[in-house]
Design goal:
single chain; 443 residues; mainly alpha; Growth Hormone, Chain: A; MFS_sugar_transport-like; symporter activity; MFS_dom
Length: 443
């Protein structure tokens, strides 16, 4: 019986790939920890700390508006980091983005509340949220590219999925820290000052993330771009030449997953406690368990995509998401803890089907020399239209009607739109090559 032995070089390459995948997962987890921590605090704390003069509904809308500001800032980060990521490399831009997110989150933990400094409290909160958004805008596309561009040809979806796993991992970490801090002190103390502790912890976590990320080598694909003198002077301009139509379809393809995820991760914390009298700890626990399932199933779905292709999997997942979004809030409205748990578990099982390959789908639209800029643009516009607006729209619809029917209709429309966009996009082949052309171009 013949045994296959890997060469020393093959073993070294595999170790590098694993180190890159692990570093991108850890880095994105820490960035999403900061981002989701803000979302949880916006749903449960910030209306009382920073908008006490408003009614409960108006205060919640104001708090969710500051949450949405981070999404508005993300395209700025995506464009800036995308430009330099295509010009000077992926690695250094990702280090800067991690630093920005960690510093901003730590400072949120020391911002005085409205009772201390008046209107300057929400102003400072918004400014720091903008910094968070810019940092995450640079992280999302860059981490996907670093991981995917180190991957072997037959595992591009798998490696591109590692940063995607950072989203649910960051959510779980944020909720665990939030719940643990809440459990260790009286409720009044937590609402008054204890909520700051999870934000202050960001300072320590970012040091860990930097120590890991600094060990990662530059993307070999970007090094190939440099060696072929194919670096573009204005990469975003060249990226748009892929075609506005294809880019618009890709944005549409991702909005349903983003909207559904932020409704179940963020909006339900406010809606469930204020309108349905669910226990806050119970809801956070449900979201966390769903996120664990989401995290654990991403490698399975990216493996399916590598073996069988993305089209059937993605369209099937989009149909499942549409069906479950129609059922999700009515299940929650029953007021039963058992039924609500089933609703959240369904989201945890269905959301990762389409989320797992979104980064790879977007990245494959663009040639390597402009991939960071193009991917950032599509990713962040889709995030605004999907996740950034979902909590605000949902809260407004509930405030108008007093019930969740309008939110269910909204989610159904968004899911149907994404399904149509996916069907049209997958009818045409990927438009761009993965590597730069051999012929040199002017820098």
């Amino acid at each position: 019986m013949t045994q296959k032995h890997s060469s020393p070089q093959a073993v070294t390459d595999m170790q590098k790939r694993r180190r890159v995948g692990s570093a991108m997962l850890v880095g994105t987890t820490l960035e999403w920890y900061d981002f989701f921590l803000y979302g949880t605090a916006a749903a449960l704390i910030f209306n009382k700390q920073f908008f006490p003069s408003l009614s409960p509904t108006a205060g919640t809308l104001a708090a969710f508006s500051t949450f949405a500001v981070g999404f508005v800032a993300r395209p700025i980060g995506g464009l800036v980091f995308g430009h330099f990521g295509d010009r000077i490399g992926r690695r250094n831009t990702l280090i800067v983005s991690l630093l920005m997110m960690g510093i901003a989150s730590t400072l949120i933990g020391v911002v005085p509340n409205y009772a201390s400094i008046g209107v300057w409290a929400p102003v400072l909160l918004v400014l720091l949220r903008v910094v968070q958004g810019i940092g995450l805008g640079g992280e999302g596309a860059g981490a996907t590219l670093m991981s995917m561009e180190h991957a072997p040809a037959d595992k591009r979806n798998l490696y591109a999925g590692f940063p995607q796993m950072g989203t649910p991992a960051g959510l779980v970490l944020a909720n665990v820290v939030f719940l643990s801090t809440n459990a260790l002190m009286p409720s009044d103390a937590f609402d008054s000052w204890g909520w700051r502790i999870p934000f202050l912890l960001s300072g320590l976590l970012v040091v860990v993330g930097l120590a890991i990320r600094l060990r990662v080598e530059e993307s070999p694909t970007f090094e190939s771009v440099v060696s072929h003198r194919a670096v573009e002077r204005f990469p975003l301009r060249e990226a748009v030449r892929v075609g506005v139509g294809r880019m618009a379809l890709t944005v549409g393809l991702m909005v349903a997953n983003s909207a559904a995820a932020y409704v179940f991760m963020v909006f339900t914390l406010s809606y469930g406690t204020k309108h349905l009298d669910y226990n806050r700890t119970f809801l956070i626990a449900c979201v966390s368990v769903a996120a664990v399932i989401w995290f654990a199933t991403i490698p399975y779905w990216t493996g399916v995509a590598d073996r069988s292709g993305r089209r059937t999997m993605f369209i099937g997942g989009s149909i499942a998401l549409l069906v479950w979004c129609v059922a999700f809030l009515p299940l929650l409205d029953t007021g039963s803890n058992a039924v609500a748990a089933i609703a959240f578990l369904g989201m945890g099982l269905i959301v990762p089907v389409t989320h797992s390959v979104q980064g790879a789908i977007i990245a494959d639209l663009f040639p390597a020399s402009v991939r960071y800029s193009g991917t950032s643009l599509v990713l962040q516009v889709g995030a605004i239209l999907g996740g950034g607006l979902a909590p605000i729209i949902s809260s407004a619809l509930v405030g108008e009607s007093g019930g969740s029917a309008g939110v269910t209709v909204y989610l159904a429309i968004v899911c149907a739109l994404s399904l149509v966009c996916a069907a049209f996009l997958f009818r045409t082949p990927t438009a761009t090559p993965a590597e730069p052309a051999e012929a040199p171009t002017a820098v």
